[in-house]
Amino acid sequence: MLIKMQVDDFIEELASDSPAPGGGSVAALSGAMGAGLVSMVARLTIGKKGYEDVEDLIEQTLVASEKIRAELTLLVDKDTQAFNRVMAAFKMPKETQAEKSLRSDAIQAAFQNAILTPLRVAELCLGVLELALSIAGKANQNAASDLGVAAQMAYAGVQGAVMNVKINLPSIKDLQFSEEKKTKALAFLKSAKNVQGQVLQEINKLIG
Amino acid sequence: MLIKMQVDDFIEELASDSPAPGGGSVAALSGAMGAGLVSMVARLTIGKKGYEDVEDLIEQTLVASEKIRAELTLLVDKDTQAFNRVMAAFKMPKETQAEKSLRSDAIQAAFQNAILTPLRVAELCLGVLELALSIAGKANQNAASDLGVAAQMAYAGVQGAVMNVKINLPSIKDLQFSEEKKTKALAFLKSAKNVQGQVLQEINKLIG
Hints:
The structure is a homodimer. Chain A is an all-alpha fold. The first copy, chain A, contains six helices and no strands. In chain A, helix 2 (about 25-45) packs antiparallel against helix 5 (about 145-170). The interface between A and B is large, with 61 and 61 residues.
Protein backbone atom coordinates (compact mmCIF):
# COMPACT_ATOMS: atom_id res chain seq x y z
CA MET A 1 0.00 0.00 0.00
CA LEU A 2 1.19 3.51 -0.87
CA ILE A 3 0.12 4.93 2.49
CA LYS A 4 2.31 2.36 4.27
CA MET A 5 5.41 3.63 2.43
CA GLN A 6 7.84 6.10 4.01
CA VAL A 7 7.09 9.68 2.95
CA ASP A 8 10.44 10.06 1.14
CA ASP A 9 10.03 6.69 -0.61
CA PHE A 10 6.52 7.67 -1.71
CA ILE A 11 7.86 10.86 -3.32
CA GLU A 12 10.67 8.84 -4.92
CA GLU A 13 8.13 6.37 -6.33
CA LEU A 14 6.05 9.30 -7.62
CA ALA A 15 9.10 10.64 -9.48
CA SER A 16 9.85 7.28 -11.14
CA ASP A 17 9.11 6.43 -14.77
CA SER A 18 6.01 4.45 -13.77
CA PRO A 19 2.74 6.32 -14.44
CA ALA A 20 1.30 5.12 -11.11
CA PRO A 21 1.11 6.50 -8.50
CA GLY A 22 0.41 9.82 -10.21
CA GLY A 23 -1.63 12.98 -9.88
CA GLY A 24 -4.80 11.21 -8.75
CA SER A 25 -3.22 9.71 -5.64
CA VAL A 26 -1.45 13.00 -4.91
CA ALA A 27 -4.79 14.86 -5.07
CA ALA A 28 -6.25 12.46 -2.48
CA LEU A 29 -3.16 12.81 -0.27
CA SER A 30 -3.32 16.59 -0.57
CA GLY A 31 -6.91 16.52 0.68
CA ALA A 32 -6.02 14.08 3.49
CA MET A 33 -3.28 16.47 4.68
CA GLY A 34 -5.77 19.35 4.51
CA ALA A 35 -8.20 17.36 6.67
CA GLY A 36 -5.35 16.50 9.05
CA LEU A 37 -4.52 20.20 9.45
CA VAL A 38 -8.18 21.07 10.10
CA SER A 39 -8.18 18.40 12.83
CA MET A 40 -4.97 19.79 14.30
CA VAL A 41 -6.33 23.35 14.40
CA ALA A 42 -9.54 22.04 16.03
CA ARG A 43 -7.54 20.12 18.66
CA LEU A 44 -5.38 23.19 19.34
CA THR A 45 -8.58 25.15 20.04
CA ILE A 46 -10.56 22.75 22.24
CA GLY A 47 -10.05 23.50 25.93
CA LYS A 48 -8.12 26.73 25.26
CA LYS A 49 -9.03 29.87 27.19
CA GLY A 50 -11.02 32.37 25.13
CA TYR A 51 -12.50 29.75 22.84
CA GLU A 52 -15.20 28.36 25.16
CA ASP A 53 -18.06 29.80 23.07
CA VAL A 54 -17.06 27.93 19.91
CA GLU A 55 -16.22 24.63 21.61
CA ASP A 56 -19.33 22.79 20.30
CA LEU A 57 -18.72 23.95 16.74
CA ILE A 58 -15.05 22.96 16.91
CA GLU A 59 -15.90 19.53 18.36
CA GLN A 60 -18.33 18.89 15.48
CA THR A 61 -15.74 20.05 12.96
CA LEU A 62 -13.16 17.68 14.42
CA VAL A 63 -15.47 14.66 14.15
CA ALA A 64 -16.23 15.51 10.53
CA SER A 65 -12.62 16.26 9.53
CA GLU A 66 -11.38 13.00 11.06
CA LYS A 67 -14.00 11.07 9.10
CA ILE A 68 -13.00 12.76 5.83
CA ARG A 69 -9.29 12.30 6.62
CA ALA A 70 -9.79 8.55 7.00
CA GLU A 71 -11.61 8.21 3.68
CA LEU A 72 -9.20 10.44 1.73
CA THR A 73 -6.24 8.47 3.12
CA LEU A 74 -7.75 5.26 1.70
CA LEU A 75 -8.42 7.01 -1.62
CA VAL A 76 -4.66 7.54 -2.10
CA ASP A 77 -4.38 3.82 -2.85
CA LYS A 78 -7.81 3.49 -4.46
CA ASP A 79 -6.94 6.03 -7.13
CA THR A 80 -3.80 4.15 -8.14
CA GLN A 81 -5.78 0.88 -8.11
CA ALA A 82 -8.35 2.48 -10.41
CA PHE A 83 -5.59 3.45 -12.85
CA ASN A 84 -4.06 -0.05 -12.69
CA ARG A 85 -7.49 -1.58 -13.40
CA VAL A 86 -7.72 0.41 -16.64
CA MET A 87 -4.23 -0.80 -17.66
CA ALA A 88 -5.17 -4.42 -16.81
CA ALA A 89 -8.38 -4.22 -18.86
CA PHE A 90 -6.41 -3.08 -21.93
CA LYS A 91 -4.20 -6.16 -21.57
CA MET A 92 -7.15 -8.60 -21.77
CA PRO A 93 -7.14 -11.00 -24.76
CA LYS A 94 -8.85 -9.76 -27.93
CA GLU A 95 -8.64 -12.66 -30.39
CA THR A 96 -12.24 -13.81 -30.60
CA GLN A 97 -15.38 -11.71 -30.84
CA ALA A 98 -16.40 -12.83 -27.34
CA GLU A 99 -13.00 -11.78 -25.94
CA LYS A 100 -13.22 -8.42 -27.68
CA SER A 101 -16.64 -7.77 -26.18
CA LEU A 102 -15.57 -8.79 -22.66
CA ARG A 103 -12.46 -6.62 -22.96
CA SER A 104 -14.41 -3.61 -24.14
CA ASP A 105 -16.88 -3.93 -21.24
CA ALA A 106 -14.01 -4.27 -18.77
CA ILE A 107 -12.31 -1.16 -20.18
CA GLN A 108 -15.52 0.86 -19.89
CA ALA A 109 -16.16 -0.32 -16.31
CA ALA A 110 -12.54 0.48 -15.38
CA PHE A 111 -12.73 3.97 -16.89
CA GLN A 112 -16.02 4.66 -15.08
CA ASN A 113 -14.31 3.65 -11.83
CA ALA A 114 -11.34 5.87 -12.73
CA ILE A 115 -13.79 8.77 -12.95
CA LEU A 116 -15.90 7.96 -9.89
CA THR A 117 -12.80 7.66 -7.68
CA PRO A 118 -11.38 11.18 -8.26
CA LEU A 119 -14.95 12.54 -8.25
CA ARG A 120 -15.27 11.28 -4.68
CA VAL A 121 -11.87 12.82 -3.88
CA ALA A 122 -13.11 16.17 -5.22
CA GLU A 123 -16.31 15.94 -3.13
CA LEU A 124 -14.39 15.15 0.06
CA CYS A 125 -11.80 17.88 -0.54
CA LEU A 126 -14.68 20.34 -0.95
CA GLY A 127 -15.91 19.01 2.41
CA VAL A 128 -12.52 19.87 3.95
CA LEU A 129 -12.79 23.42 2.56
CA GLU A 130 -16.26 23.81 4.06
CA LEU A 131 -14.99 22.63 7.45
CA ALA A 132 -12.08 25.07 7.23
CA LEU A 133 -14.54 27.87 6.47
CA SER A 134 -16.79 26.89 9.38
CA ILE A 135 -13.97 27.52 11.88
CA ALA A 136 -11.97 30.24 10.06
CA GLY A 137 -11.64 33.32 12.29
CA LYS A 138 -13.10 31.32 15.21
CA ALA A 139 -10.44 28.67 15.92
CA ASN A 140 -7.07 29.21 17.69
CA GLN A 141 -5.57 32.29 16.02
CA ASN A 142 -2.00 31.10 16.60
CA ALA A 143 -2.76 28.36 14.08
CA ALA A 144 -4.26 30.69 11.46
CA SER A 145 -1.59 29.85 8.88
CA ASP A 146 -2.15 26.13 9.45
CA LEU A 147 -5.84 26.54 8.66
CA GLY A 148 -4.87 28.55 5.58
CA VAL A 149 -2.56 25.76 4.41
CA ALA A 150 -5.35 23.25 5.10
CA ALA A 151 -7.60 25.17 2.72
CA GLN A 152 -4.89 25.40 0.06
CA MET A 153 -4.19 21.67 0.18
CA ALA A 154 -7.91 20.89 -0.03
CA TYR A 155 -8.36 23.29 -2.95
CA ALA A 156 -5.39 21.79 -4.79
CA GLY A 157 -7.00 18.41 -4.09
CA VAL A 158 -10.30 19.43 -5.71
CA GLN A 159 -8.52 20.89 -8.74
CA GLY A 160 -6.25 17.87 -9.16
CA ALA A 161 -9.10 15.39 -8.78
CA VAL A 162 -11.23 17.25 -11.32
CA MET A 163 -8.35 17.13 -13.83
CA ASN A 164 -8.26 13.37 -13.32
CA VAL A 165 -11.99 13.16 -13.98
CA LYS A 166 -11.65 15.26 -17.13
CA ILE A 167 -8.74 13.34 -18.67
CA ASN A 168 -10.74 10.10 -18.50
CA LEU A 169 -14.07 11.46 -19.80
CA PRO A 170 -13.32 11.09 -23.54
CA SER A 171 -12.82 7.32 -23.06
CA ILE A 172 -16.40 6.81 -21.82
CA LYS A 173 -18.96 5.53 -24.35
CA ASP A 174 -21.99 6.09 -22.10
CA LEU A 175 -22.58 9.77 -22.87
CA GLN A 176 -25.18 10.20 -20.14
CA PHE A 177 -22.65 8.97 -17.57
CA SER A 178 -19.91 11.26 -18.81
CA GLU A 179 -22.16 14.33 -19.07
CA GLU A 180 -23.47 13.74 -15.54
CA LYS A 181 -20.02 13.29 -13.99
CA LYS A 182 -18.60 16.27 -15.84
CA THR A 183 -21.41 18.49 -14.53
CA LYS A 184 -20.78 17.24 -10.99
CA ALA A 185 -17.02 17.77 -11.24
CA LEU A 186 -17.42 21.34 -12.50
CA ALA A 187 -19.92 22.09 -9.74
CA PHE A 188 -17.46 20.87 -7.09
CA LEU A 189 -14.74 23.03 -8.65
CA LYS A 190 -16.96 26.12 -8.67
CA SER A 191 -18.02 25.66 -5.04
CA ALA A 192 -14.42 24.98 -4.01
CA LYS A 193 -13.19 28.21 -5.59
CA ASN A 194 -15.89 30.15 -3.82
CA VAL A 195 -15.31 28.58 -0.38
CA GLN A 196 -11.52 28.83 -0.75
CA GLY A 197 -11.84 32.57 -1.41
CA GLN A 198 -13.90 33.01 1.74
CA VAL A 199 -11.46 31.03 3.90
CA LEU A 200 -8.47 33.04 2.66
CA GLN A 201 -10.32 36.29 3.32
CA GLU A 202 -10.80 35.26 6.96
CA ILE A 203 -7.19 34.06 7.30
CA ASN A 204 -5.80 37.24 5.74
CA LYS A 205 -7.68 39.31 8.31
CA LEU A 206 -5.57 37.54 10.95
CA ILE A 207 -2.13 37.33 9.33
CA GLY A 208 -2.23 40.34 7.03
CA MET B 1 12.59 12.41 10.88
CA LEU B 2 9.15 13.20 9.45
CA ILE B 3 10.09 12.02 5.96
CA LYS B 4 11.04 8.61 7.36
CA MET B 5 7.52 8.13 8.78
CA GLN B 6 4.86 6.11 6.97
CA VAL B 7 2.55 8.34 4.93
CA ASP B 8 -0.52 7.44 7.01
CA ASP B 9 1.39 7.95 10.28
CA PHE B 10 2.59 11.35 9.04
CA ILE B 11 -0.99 12.44 8.36
CA GLU B 12 -2.04 11.08 11.77
CA GLU B 13 0.77 13.07 13.43
CA LEU B 14 -0.32 16.16 11.50
CA ALA B 15 -3.87 15.77 12.86
CA SER B 16 -2.69 15.45 16.47
CA ASP B 17 -2.94 18.21 19.09
CA SER B 18 0.75 19.05 18.70
CA PRO B 19 1.37 22.25 16.67
CA ALA B 20 4.31 20.59 14.86
CA PRO B 21 4.44 19.32 12.21
CA GLY B 22 2.05 21.88 10.76
CA GLY B 23 1.35 23.90 7.66
CA GLY B 24 4.99 24.78 7.01
CA SER B 25 6.10 21.18 6.63
CA VAL B 26 3.01 20.41 4.56
CA ALA B 27 3.85 23.28 2.18
CA ALA B 28 7.34 21.81 1.65
CA LEU B 29 5.91 18.32 1.13
CA SER B 30 3.36 19.70 -1.32
CA GLY B 31 6.17 21.23 -3.37
CA ALA B 32 8.25 18.03 -3.16
CA MET B 33 5.31 16.05 -4.55
CA GLY B 34 4.91 18.63 -7.32
CA ALA B 35 8.60 18.25 -8.20
CA GLY B 36 8.19 14.46 -8.10
CA LEU B 37 5.32 14.66 -10.58
CA VAL B 38 7.32 16.92 -12.92
CA SER B 39 10.11 14.30 -12.82
CA MET B 40 7.62 11.52 -13.55
CA VAL B 41 6.15 13.36 -16.54
CA ALA B 42 9.68 14.05 -17.82
CA ARG B 43 10.63 10.37 -17.46
CA LEU B 44 7.41 9.30 -19.22
CA THR B 45 8.43 11.53 -22.16
CA ILE B 46 12.12 10.68 -22.61
CA GLY B 47 12.61 8.01 -25.28
CA LYS B 48 8.95 8.08 -26.38
CA LYS B 49 8.13 8.27 -30.09
CA GLY B 50 6.98 11.72 -31.21
CA TYR B 51 8.88 13.54 -28.47
CA GLU B 52 12.39 13.37 -29.99
CA ASP B 53 12.51 17.14 -30.66
CA VAL B 54 11.98 18.09 -27.03
CA GLU B 55 14.29 15.44 -25.53
CA ASP B 56 17.05 17.91 -24.56
CA LEU B 57 14.60 20.28 -22.89
CA ILE B 58 12.96 17.41 -21.01
CA GLU B 59 16.33 16.02 -19.87
CA GLN B 60 17.30 19.45 -18.48
CA THR B 61 13.93 19.76 -16.74
CA LEU B 62 14.38 16.36 -15.12
CA VAL B 63 17.82 17.25 -13.72
CA ALA B 64 16.42 20.48 -12.28
CA SER B 65 13.22 18.94 -10.86
CA GLU B 66 15.16 16.15 -9.15
CA LYS B 67 17.46 18.71 -7.53
CA ILE B 68 14.49 20.74 -6.25
CA ARG B 69 12.69 17.58 -5.11
CA ALA B 70 15.69 16.60 -2.96
CA GLU B 71 15.89 20.01 -1.27
CA LEU B 72 12.13 20.35 -0.69
CA THR B 73 12.04 16.85 0.84
CA LEU B 74 14.66 17.94 3.39
CA LEU B 75 12.73 21.15 4.05
CA VAL B 76 9.77 19.10 5.36
CA ASP B 77 11.83 18.39 8.47
CA LYS B 78 13.70 21.70 8.48
CA ASP B 79 10.45 23.66 8.76
CA THR B 80 9.32 21.70 11.82
CA GLN B 81 12.82 22.09 13.33
CA ALA B 82 12.57 25.85 12.76
CA PHE B 83 9.27 25.93 14.65
CA ASN B 84 10.70 23.83 17.48
CA ARG B 85 13.68 26.18 17.73
CA VAL B 86 11.33 29.12 18.36
CA MET B 87 9.54 27.14 21.08
CA ALA B 88 12.88 26.17 22.68
CA ALA B 89 14.08 29.79 22.70
CA PHE B 90 10.94 30.88 24.57
CA LYS B 91 11.73 28.28 27.25
CA MET B 92 15.20 29.71 27.97
CA PRO B 93 15.74 31.08 31.51
CA LYS B 94 14.88 34.75 32.07
CA GLU B 95 15.82 35.47 35.67
CA THR B 96 18.87 37.70 35.31
CA GLN B 97 19.38 40.58 32.91
CA ALA B 98 22.05 38.55 31.07
CA GLU B 99 19.65 35.62 30.70
CA LYS B 100 16.91 37.90 29.41
CA SER B 101 19.23 39.35 26.80
CA LEU B 102 20.47 35.92 25.64
CA ARG B 103 16.89 34.65 25.47
CA SER B 104 15.70 37.63 23.46
CA ASP B 105 18.54 37.21 20.96
CA ALA B 106 17.81 33.49 20.64
CA ILE B 107 14.11 34.18 20.02
CA GLN B 108 14.92 36.72 17.30
CA ALA B 109 17.40 34.36 15.61
CA ALA B 110 14.87 31.52 15.77
CA PHE B 111 12.09 33.66 14.27
CA GLN B 112 14.39 34.82 11.46
CA ASN B 113 15.14 31.16 10.72
CA ALA B 114 11.40 30.40 10.86
CA ILE B 115 10.95 33.02 8.11
CA LEU B 116 13.96 32.11 5.96
CA THR B 117 12.95 28.44 5.89
CA PRO B 118 9.45 28.86 4.36
CA LEU B 119 10.83 31.64 2.14
CA ARG B 120 13.19 29.05 0.60
CA VAL B 121 10.24 26.65 0.28
CA ALA B 122 8.30 29.34 -1.61
CA GLU B 123 11.27 29.99 -3.92
CA LEU B 124 11.71 26.30 -4.72
CA CYS B 125 7.98 25.74 -5.28
CA LEU B 126 8.04 28.64 -7.74
CA GLY B 127 10.93 26.80 -9.41
CA VAL B 128 8.72 23.70 -9.75
CA LEU B 129 6.02 25.83 -11.40
CA GLU B 130 8.54 27.26 -13.85
CA LEU B 131 9.73 23.75 -14.73
CA ALA B 132 6.13 22.62 -15.23
CA LEU B 133 5.56 25.58 -17.55
CA SER B 134 8.73 24.84 -19.54
CA ILE B 135 7.37 21.39 -20.54
CA ALA B 136 3.59 22.07 -20.52
CA GLY B 137 2.12 21.19 -23.92
CA LYS B 138 5.45 19.60 -24.94
CA ALA B 139 5.77 16.58 -22.62
CA ASN B 140 3.87 13.27 -22.90
CA GLN B 141 0.23 14.26 -23.41
CA ASN B 142 -1.07 11.12 -21.67
CA ALA B 143 0.36 12.59 -18.48
CA ALA B 144 -1.20 16.05 -18.95
CA SER B 145 -3.29 15.79 -15.78
CA ASP B 146 -0.21 14.72 -13.79
CA LEU B 147 1.61 17.87 -14.91
CA GLY B 148 -1.47 19.89 -13.98
CA VAL B 149 -1.51 18.35 -10.49
CA ALA B 150 2.24 19.05 -10.21
CA ALA B 151 1.54 22.74 -10.82
CA GLN B 152 -1.33 22.79 -8.32
CA MET B 153 0.77 21.20 -5.60
CA ALA B 154 3.62 23.62 -6.27
CA TYR B 155 1.25 26.60 -6.23
CA ALA B 156 -0.33 25.44 -2.95
CA GLY B 157 3.24 25.09 -1.66
CA VAL B 158 4.11 28.71 -2.52
CA GLN B 159 0.88 29.99 -0.96
CA GLY B 160 1.31 27.89 2.19
CA ALA B 161 4.95 28.87 2.61
CA VAL B 162 4.15 32.57 2.19
CA MET B 163 1.47 32.30 4.91
CA ASN B 164 4.13 30.84 7.18
CA VAL B 165 6.45 33.75 6.40
CA LYS B 166 3.67 36.25 7.09
CA ILE B 167 2.53 34.81 10.43
CA ASN B 168 6.09 35.15 11.81
CA LEU B 169 6.86 38.65 10.51
CA PRO B 170 5.27 40.61 13.40
CA SER B 171 7.68 38.88 15.84
CA ILE B 172 10.77 40.30 14.12
CA LYS B 173 12.37 43.39 15.68
CA ASP B 174 14.78 44.04 12.78
CA LEU B 175 12.40 46.00 10.55
CA GLN B 176 14.78 46.00 7.58
CA PHE B 177 14.90 42.20 7.71
CA SER B 178 11.13 41.83 7.92
CA GLU B 179 10.41 44.39 5.17
CA GLU B 180 12.93 42.69 2.86
CA LYS B 181 11.57 39.18 3.43
CA LYS B 182 7.96 40.34 3.08
CA THR B 183 8.75 41.95 -0.27
CA LYS B 184 10.46 38.76 -1.45
CA ALA B 185 7.59 36.54 -0.31
CA LEU B 186 4.99 38.68 -2.08
CA ALA B 187 7.10 38.69 -5.26
CA PHE B 188 7.28 34.86 -5.21
CA LEU B 189 3.51 34.71 -4.72
CA LYS B 190 2.84 37.07 -7.62
CA SER B 191 5.15 35.19 -10.00
CA ALA B 192 3.66 31.86 -8.89
CA LYS B 193 0.12 33.03 -9.65
CA ASN B 194 1.19 34.18 -13.08
CA VAL B 195 3.12 30.99 -13.97
CA GLN B 196 0.36 28.76 -12.54
CA GLY B 197 -2.18 30.48 -14.79
CA GLN B 198 -0.01 29.84 -17.86
CA VAL B 199 0.51 26.16 -16.98
CA LEU B 200 -3.21 25.56 -16.49
CA GLN B 201 -3.96 27.27 -19.79
CA GLU B 202 -1.64 24.80 -21.57
CA ILE B 203 -3.07 21.81 -19.67
CA ASN B 204 -6.66 22.83 -20.35
CA LYS B 205 -5.92 22.92 -24.09
CA LEU B 206 -5.15 19.20 -23.78
CA ILE B 207 -7.80 17.94 -21.38
CA GLY B 208 -10.60 20.44 -21.96
